[in-house]
Write a structure and sequence with these properties.
Elements: H1 3-19, H2 24-39, H3 44-49, H4 63-75, H5 79-87, H6 90-95, H7 103-112, H8 118-126, H9 138-154, E1 158-159, H10 160-175, E2 180-185, H11 187-190, E3 195-196, E4 199-205, H12 208-216, E5 221-227, E6 231-236, E7 253-258, H13 264-272, H14 275-287, E8 290-293, E9 296-299, E10 305-307, H15 311-317, H16 333-338, E11 353-354, H17 368-377, E12 382-385, H18 400-413, E13 421-429, H19 440-443, E14 448-452, H20 461-473, E15 479-480, H21 498-508, E16 511-515, H22 525-533, E17 538-541, H23 553-562, H24 576-582
Parallel strand pairs: 4-7, 11-12, 12-13, 13-14, 14-15, 15-16, 16-17
Antiparallel strand pairs: 1-3, 2-4, 5-6, 6-7, 8-9, 9-10
This protein binds 2'-deoxyguanosine-5'-triphosphate and calcium ion (2 copies).
Length: 584
């Protein structure tokens, strides 16, 4: 019983209580307990076994909760949770994830309209059953239908940033086994796709059973779903700190395949995908009277193997250079490969600047100095401090006066640092009426102005276009941050007319951001490639709110790699001087 599983139970109980109309104090108590447990470095199970430790010493854990935790560890269950689950269907809980539906509304849908499944909810919304209810209307019905569509699309995928470190630990452990020679990840993780459906790993081993036993007995394994001679599928427990894009803890599943050494490259090629890429490689093989599958590349007439041990050999036999996994989506990789124009993809260590971050002035955790120190530790040569503007009331956004005072402070502080340049910046909201949240004469004083959409993301395409074009045409705006405003799995982005916006940005010399936050990654791979086609330099920023936030850079770099970007396409790979030259 790991901590994450226990925390998950309390979170679920809090959700159910809330829906059931329980008092807010009780709901919060369970939520706080879940958060405490999630952040604990020590295993609760071990703490209970150790007589010298008291659970009630933990913050937010009183006698009652301690007793419940002990019960969970002993029985594997939280009794109240099971009782509620018997009463309230899982689909009803999913309704809470639809924007605009809080516990009170979902309670009405369930207890009064007796909607027990997402299908029933959809049917009711389509047939104007819900709009009749007090407190609901046509608009809510519309929101429900849109929300349902989004729920379906997001399914239960998880962020790459959660899946990748997890699978790398599994691989490292597998490689330590005596009989295992190689263990690698394939599938969407290897392609560094922003979200992951399941994990696919491949190994070569003298004794496949040893690798499978290892996964059978792995502390994170929840259930072995299938096991054969060389193939195994397991489901893991909810991962610590891992949230699915749609806000629920996901039980990640993984396929392990143990393959012969002579087939390892072919299996890697096949199971890395994408399916679309593989359709083309198979066709290229057929055109050469060859057959390509997960076992190798074979001559069609006598079934003789011509390649299989390495991916390089397979691509070479197809008269292609090895294609980086990030590009294998059947977009432009085959054209590039055939003409010898495969890009030399950007790497994390080529990044020198980070031009989007927050401090305690708004919703950041560190002061200006704190952020500078954190950036220096990460070898950044230049940064921009870009707190929120006043429209973002929730984050204590800056008005002109506070902003000008902050810039004065930055100008003083930066005198103390000779190894890093610190720009006076701002993340300025583009308001719903298309004006900017701060006056021009203030923006004119900045070293670096990011303009962003935070509110009114659902406005019609024409309005969104006007807002973005207006910002781009403002002579003080240097970059558009997280262009669409999407949060993967949480909400879709604005309906952006990419072509018009990129044209304008190229004309005006405005940069475009890839926001490296794992839930944003906006621009995405396709749009980043499109922006590059327009000749727009891309900037990859962490949008850090803490020191750790600066480590998110790699996820943005991966998105850039999927877009086929090289060092030269990314503005913050240059020196500070080169970067400043790109600004207006
Ligand atoms: P995911 O798991 O949804 O994030 O995406 P992938 O790409 O990891 O997909 P997955 O796990 O279904 O399969 C892994 C790879 O195996 C996939 O990228 C290509 C290959 N593959 C699986 N099924 C097929 C198939 O029916 N045809 C072909 N050509 N390749 C397949
Ligand atoms: Ca997969
Ligand atoms: Ca799979």
């Amino acid at each position: 019983m790991n901590n994450a599983t226990i925390a998950d139970m309390f979170d679920q109980l809090a959700d159910l209580l809330e829906l059931d109309g329980a008092n807010g104090f009780r709901v919060r108590a369970y939520r706080n307990a879940a958060r405490t447990i999630d952040a604990l470095p020590d295993s609760l199970e071990e703490m209970i076994a150790d007589e010298s430790q008291k659970l009630t010493d933990l913050s937010g854990i009183g006698k009652d909760l301690a007793e419940k935790i002990r019960n969970i560890v002993e029985t594997g269950e939280l009794k109240q949770l099971e009782e509620y689950k018997a009463k309230i269907p899982a689909d009803v809980m999913k309704m809470l994830r639809i924007p605009g539906l809080g516990p009170k509304k979902v309670a009405v849908l369930f207890y009064e309209l007796h909607l027990k499944s997402l299908d029933e909810l959809k049917h009711a919304a389509e047939n104007n059953v819900i709009a009749q209810k007090k407190g609901f209307g046509k608009k809510t019905e519309q929101l429900i239908l849109e929300g349902l569509e989004h729920l379906e699309q997001s399914g239960s995928r998880m962020y790459l940033a959660d899946a990748k470190p997890f699978v790398e630990q599994i691989l490292a452990d597998l490689r330590k086994l005596k009989s295992v020679q190689q263990a690698e990840v394939a599938g969407s993780v290897r392609r560094l796709k922003e979200t992951i459906g399941d994990l696919d790993i491949l190994a070569t081993a003298d004794d496949p059973a040893e690798a499978m036993d290892f996964l059978d007995n792995h502390p994170q394994t929840d259930k072995v779903l299938a096991r054969g001679e060389t193939k195994q599928r397991v489901r893991f427990k909810p991962l610590v700190r891992c949230m699915t894009p749609d806000g629920n803890r996901l039980r990640l599943e993984m396929d392990l395949r143990v393959v012969p050494t002579a087939s390892f490259g072919a299996a890697m090629q096949y199971f890395t995908g994408s399916k679309e890429h593989n359709i083309v490689t198979r066709r290229l093989a057929q055109q050469r009277d060859l057959k390509l599958n997960e076992y190798g590349l074979f001559r069609e007439d006598d079934e003789e193997s011509v390649a299989g041990e390495t991916e390089e050999a397979i691509y070479k036999t197809l008269d292609l250079p090895w294609i980086p996994p990030e590009l294998r989506e059947d977009r432009r990789e085959f054209d590039w490969a055939e003409s010898g124009d495969l890009p030399d993809l950007l790497t994390v260590d080529q990044i020198r600047g980070d031009l989007h971050m927050h401090t305690t002035a708004t919703d950041g955790k560190l002061t200006i100095e704190g952020m500078i120190e954190a950036a220096r530790e990460r070898k950044r040569k230049y940064i921009a401090i870009t707190d929120h503007s006043k429209r973002v009331v929730m984050a204590n956004g800056l008005d002109s006066e506070r902003l000008l005072a902050q810039w004065d402070e930055i100008r003083k502080i930066r005198e103390n640092y000779s190894d890093i340049d610190v720009l006076c910046g701002i993340e300025c909201d583009i308001l719903e009426d298309a004006t900017l949240d701060l006056p021009d004469e203030v923006l004119a004083e900045a070293d670096f102005v990011i303009a962003v959409l935070h509110y009114g993301l659902k406005q019609p395409r024409d309005v969104i276009r006007e807002r973005l074009l207006n910002a781009i045409r403002n002579p003080h705006v240097d970059m558009i941050g997280h262009l669409t405003g999407r949060m993967i799995g949480v909400r879709p982005g604005a309906d952006v007319d990419f072509d018009d916006v990129f044209k304008a940005a190229a004309d005006e010399g405005v940069l475009m951001e890839i926001n490296a936050h794992p839930a944003r990654l906006d621009l995405d791979d396709v749009r980043a490639a499109q922006a590059k086609d327009h000749g727009i330099p891309i900037v990859i920023n962490t949008d850090a709110h803490s020191a750790g936030g600066m480590d998110l850079m790699e996820w943005g770099v991966y998105q850039a790699r999927r877009a086929g970007l090289s060092k030269k396409d990314v503005a913050n790979t240059g020196t500070a001087k080169q970067f400043l030259k790109l600004l207006r």
